[in-house]
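Cross-posted from the bioinformatics board.
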Amino acid sequence: MTAILTDHSAGLVGEPGNRDGFGRLLRAEWTKFRTVRGWMIGLIVAAILTVGLAWLTAAGSTIGCSNGSGTVQLTGRACLPPVPIGPGGEAVNDSFYFVRQSLTGNGSITVAVTSFTGRHIAGNGVGRVHAVGTGQGGLVSGTGPWSKAGIIIKQSTKPGSAYAAMMVTGSHGVRMQYDYVSDIAGLPGRPSSPAPRWLRLVREGDTIAGYDSADGIHWARVGTATLAGLSRVVQVGLFATSPQDFRVQSSFGGQSVQGGPSLATGVFDHVRLSGAVNGTWTGGNVGSSPSAGPPDLGSGFHASAGTFAVSGSGDIGPIVPGPGGGWYPTAAIEQNLAGAFIGLIAILVVAAMFFTAEYRRGLIRITLAASPRRGQVLAAKAIVAGLVTFAVGLVAVIVSIAVGVRQMRSQGLYVLPVSALTEARVIVGTAAMLGVMAVFAVALGAVLRRSAITITVAIVAIVLPFLFAALNIFPYDVTNWLLRVTPAAGFAIEQSIPHYSQVNSLYQPANGSYPLPPLAGFAVLCAWTAAALMLALILLRRRDA
Amino acid sequence: MSHALDAEWTKFRTVASPGWLLAATSGLTIAISVAAETATRCPASLRCPVDTVRLSLTGIQFGQAIVAILAVLMITDEYSTGLILVTLAATPRRWTVLAAKAVILAVAVLGAGIIAAGGSILAGRLILPGHGFTAARGFPVLSLTGGLALRPEAGSVLYLALIALLSLGIAAIVRDSAIAIGAVLGLFYLFPIMIAFITSVTWQHRIERYTPVNAGLAIQATTGLRHLPISPWAGLGVLAIWAAAALLAGALTLRLRDA
């Protein structure tokens, strides 16, 4: 056999004169692929099962609620709350207690926060709250990590409108946050009356600069926000809010999340406004508080001798999937792609067989006799398997998302909106991920030659890390590590809602969250595939067929 | 039957791959269990809702993949090499052929499983107390031969044997190694993933009660027994029904089809 297979020198890319040869090789491989009836049927069945499973996974219990007066029971779509949309197009929580004046034109606000406390329902937030003590009426005192109080300049009291704010937080020190998704760290620590935290916001046209200080004399700029199209008249004042607290118990295969509303109270001293303000403080809740939900723990404000105590409940920030999103159940579009796993297994089987079947039947000898450049044979097989998978995957993913999102909405689940660009990345990226995984299986097939072992290695390398993550078998950081270094990192391309460190939630794959950014995760998968291809190339050239 | 057993045993022991796969089953199961035990800690300040026995047997979820390869190849290799024609010529009773394969496979997997599960529990006994899972804090001392860990340990060994028989049955139906292993691993790993995504409690419950891996692994539970979707032995029973049904279907197709 080896006599006719002596040309070991060819690389992946042929010499210019060989272009035609490679084109013919591609066509030959495509012919092999499409004429094995079982493979095409397998792929199509995989696509159908993928969509079917998308429908099944989305088929949860329909959400029930009652109307405002509590007399009429509603279900499904009718329960969808009005969710504010932020300036960047994302769904946001925008509910807090606001003590405000209107400001026309440029101006500034300066305060000293002398105390920051909070309350939440007993039993919540074990291990997560900053301090715990016994309180009154089933409430215990303690602030959540992202409870916040401070000063804010906001376009209007309409939820979702543009803003910039300086605040103290439960356990993340002083922060400047603006337009829901931006978060900049300032001074560390919590305020107390001997060591207050001084905060200042200065508006000049569209830009708002945030400053902090430990003594009211030496100021440092924390950040500058540009709020495009900020109107001449804005609302300026003091705010307090505290996101729903939650506690998660994880065990094998299951998780229970318990949570409830919480309240934060900030005490402000040395409140100073400059610019054209109207001079009278007005207090009120902004937003119907989709984050806090009922019951109200006692938001409001109290002013005496220049000192303000402001209490509020809710959150100002992006809505994420999972328990940090608020009391209303939300979902991300990629949660409809769980069905892709069943498709994936079929794809890995077919792609692995694309090489291993040739060894079993001895066809490999004819293939290599017809095109002795072994690198080109590998490349042609990889390209055909990758592209076919991409095409079938694309259709399956588009239909899965369309079907699943419809289903989720009709049940009353709020599907978090994403930009068209992000949605395109999720769809095309998932199809590309499936294509690259198919190439990975082709390369493994060339290395291992035995289909049963190839398929098991491929499935175990790609699916098992994800399964271990989804089942919470390992602690959080081990799971994250698994999803960083194994080929399963590629699933990150599905993530549509970014991880916001300023929103405390359960960031895990079942909620559509991965430890690596989408493209980085995809790159890890590509690196594994490239390594497998290299190994396949070396072994193909070295070994007899 | 004894001739068929003899023949299957000769085939099994004179090829290198079954021995390697059995060794890999034990070795990798213990390795994954050790990794899980090493990674899990219970700091002094926290209450940890960890089922230490189940944690120690984590590797079984990986070992089952290798057991599946072994079981699938036992049949499909004969088809791909044409050996099946010789086998069936020598033993025309096809039920007997499958039964002999099942017996040899089950015995071999039980042996590898005892090492795998025993090693995993032993590692847990050595590692976990150093990670905060001490008897003083209410966690059981894991023992190989008695106490709380015995049922999960022995059950995991039986679990692996049943997984092997289920895979053998499916392979007898499918005959092709690639499709058989894909079908088997899909059956094993898809349902547990689905649970994480499915929002419907009814469907979650159904999957936990009636699918082979989820129901079968209930045998490993030692905490929260009253809240299990299916009781440990009933769960293993569900897996046994799956395995019996697959073997029966495999035997029927073997009997009714030309080789």
